[in-house]
Amino acid sequence: MSSTPDDDVQTYIRAHRTPFLADLAEWLRIPSVSAEPDRAPDLLRSAEWLAAALKETGFPVAEVWPTKGAPAVFAEWRSDDEDAPTVLVYGHHDVQPAALADGWDGDPFEPVERDGRLYARGAADDKGQVFLHTLGLRAHLAATGRTTPAVHLKFLVEGEEESGSPHFLELIRERADRLACDTAIVSDTGMWAEDTPTVCTGMRGLVDGEVVLHGPDQDIHSGSFGGAVPNPATEAARLVAALHDDDRRVAIPGFYDGVVELTERERRLLAELRFDEAAWLRTAKSHAALGERGHSTLERIWARPTAEVNGIHSGYGGPGGKTIVPSRAEVKFSFRLVAGQDTAAVQRLFTDWVAERLPDGVRHEIRFWGGGTRPCLTPLDHPALRSLVRAMGRAFGQEIRFTREGGSGPAADLQDVLGVPVLFLGISVPSDGWHSVNEKVELDLLFKGVETAAHLWTDLAEDWRAGPWPAAPRPAS
Amino acid sequence: MSSTPDDDVQTYIRAHRTPFLADLAEWLRIPSVSAEPDRAPDLLRSAEWLAAALKETGFPVAEVWPTKGAPAVFAEWRSDDEDAPTVLVYGHHDVQPAALADGWDGDPFEPVERDGRLYARGAADDKGQVFLHTLGLRAHLAATGRTTPAVHLKFLVEGEEESGSPHFLELIRERADRLACDTAIVSDTGMWAEDTPTVCTGMRGLVDGEVVLHGPDQDIHSGSFGGAVPNPATEAARLVAALHDDDRRVAIPGFYDGVVELTERERRLLAELRFDEAAWLRTAKSHAALGERGHSTLERIWARPTAEVNGIHSGYGGPGGKTIVPSRAEVKFSFRLVAGQDTAAVQRLFTDWVAERLPDGVRHEIRFWGGGTRPCLTPLDHPALRSLVRAMGRAFGQEIRFTREGGSGPAADLQDVLGVPVLFLGISVPSDGWHSVNEKVELDLLFKGVETAAHLWTDLAEDWRAGPWPAAPRPAS
């Protein structure tokens, strides 16, 4: 009985498991903490290490791209099938700060394999999930007998993701020609649970900023003047309170215009995920669920837009009391957006809404932190998503379910600048301890990720030949 | 043609004007700043100076009363008319901080007479208004030919009013026997304007404290959890916003129960005061008037209860943004109360109202800063008030109008502990610069005050003989 491609992939991976883990450990030993300025040499060392490893894997092109901050790594390996699609894999090689003193069981930069897990800062976020592609690609070539990948492959691995990707947009705009592709695969997310492989289909967008209200020119006596002049603390509170109606829907007129609602199938699929709300609340350090009426917690954090207040500050805040009417109030706000919403439109709606709600005698300023981050969403029937689900299904031998990501990230920049759909291939699980102590990756899942990557290029190339992919959503002008 | 009592008073005052001002200047040179701990010796010196001056005036009893803070001065001079009422005069001998460097035209503790004004820290607040009684009393005796005052006179001049009177309540509770009286006259307020002599008829009460809301156990990520768990900043804002309805009335059920409404006569008298709202707004450093619908600015600050927020603090307040759901929120609040409202009842109503409005998952604490200060109000037809108005009318030769005080003060403690109606005799005007630079007193008005004080004991004793005074309001049990 001849071996199947799946068998061949598994055999190859098993045979190369030990040196792969040794190489990954070597990379994890480089403390590439982007938040710490004196780690700049480590960031460079990490980038150079990765570029060398990609060359070693077979990439004809592997370059360290400097930025105004930490360097990124770019690599390219064209398929000998000229008609194949071009796929860009995104990840990052910087890591969160970590120190033994934070409560780690051992040196966070000395990887330890124990009980089927690899412990180290960056094991899951994101070096492990970037590095799985090297073995995946070798297995892909070995199992298919190819000398080049089945797709034109590009890698972009940035060095500032843990610091908010401050130079990423500039980088991809400047290098857009070399980054041109047909789809981008973000290799920096997770799945639902150890026993529930999932694919993330989108991230929410973000519009954030602050409103500053000015009332009296200085703090004034509340006994002499209070109740007869506007109080900016009260006005800030009325503004924030008015953001939501009694159903906890965002009450800004037009806010929901264009929102892509969940389909019946999506709602059903979400509802089928085994969701333990009590456990989720423990993770959220919260004591009750509360949100838009008519939607479940998962719908609220993944598929519904929100308005949140991140801070309010006005007047006296010291011990005891001080009978003043404060001079000013500051509100920090953030909106999460979903597919169909436009960042600029939300900024406009909010700006107008605030201006209409303030009484005479209260001057205000609104500042937004940049133009915002757009939401991204890949429809469940997108052919590239189907390819990814098929590859993952081959690796996991289980039905692949769907999640979304409530946060916002550079995926939207890839979508917008490169004009391509974004897919998410992640094998990390919530217990992996991202940004926390004792970060780890489950080795079983890491190698399922390797296996998925080995199948993915074959499946994408095959599905691509069946017909062109729908265009990615473009930013509103 | 024989001289009238009014002529005699004026003659006496003119004759003793120069030494009176020299004595006052000597007292003003003592920098009795209660807020500055190293001024404690000056506070004692100031108290001893005043006790000596009162003895010099004729008081058989003049004592320095120590407290846990700065000392007070007590003096007593019984009338030879045993049936006369007992009157307690209240004032304070401590002053606000002052330094040449703050922008004074000269040393704030070196009094200067210029253009009919006496400039010095404490000239109006409150040494000038306390000391006017010494010459007033001498003129009273000289013009009536009496050897004792027409009423049993007591003086209580505290030393910590500018520091919030922290030991005043304790002092008057402990010394209630010696302070027993039929009415208290607060000599620490002002009148409407240079050309509009007025009597203040009440002060508002105060209930203040803080509400602390607890949401998530720590700040959490707004992308991952926002919109699905309660946000204490939002809940604090909803609470504050709900304090007022769209008419800017306090929306706590029962809050207005028992409020003594302005009579038609009082509203008319208020409306007749020449009020320049634009000028008032400049004093308030505010850019518009806003308050309870259906009431004028003066009604709002004098005769209507209010709810004010003195501070709100929650979440991130630094530069830029931070996408969190805050863990907690603090609201500092103060209610001003008017006659008919009870401090304990308002505390109960607010406590219940807050508890009912918070969603599951938000725990809260309410703290009040003590039991609150009760409002005090003397009805326009109270016989003692009529005596004061008559005495003042004799001095000023003009119709005396009525004001109230929006703030809250120790007057309420006198009312509550001693169980007497409180009257306000003040000759200071808004331009006197209380708590500000270049504090002064208008000498014309100061001597009208002396003249009022000279008539007041005669008028009070005469009116007292016409019948007993109504009881003072008592605190609710």
TrEMBL record, chains A, B:
It comes from the Bacteria. GO terms for biological process: proteolysis. Transmembrane segments: none annotated. Residues 202-361 form the Peptidase M20 dimerisation domain. GO terms for molecular function: metal ion binding; peptidase activity. Keywords: Hydrolase, Metal-binding, Protease. NCBIfam families: PRK07907.1, PRK09104.1. This is Acetylornithine deacetylase/Succinyl-diaminopimelate desuccinylase. It comes from Actinacidiphila rubida.
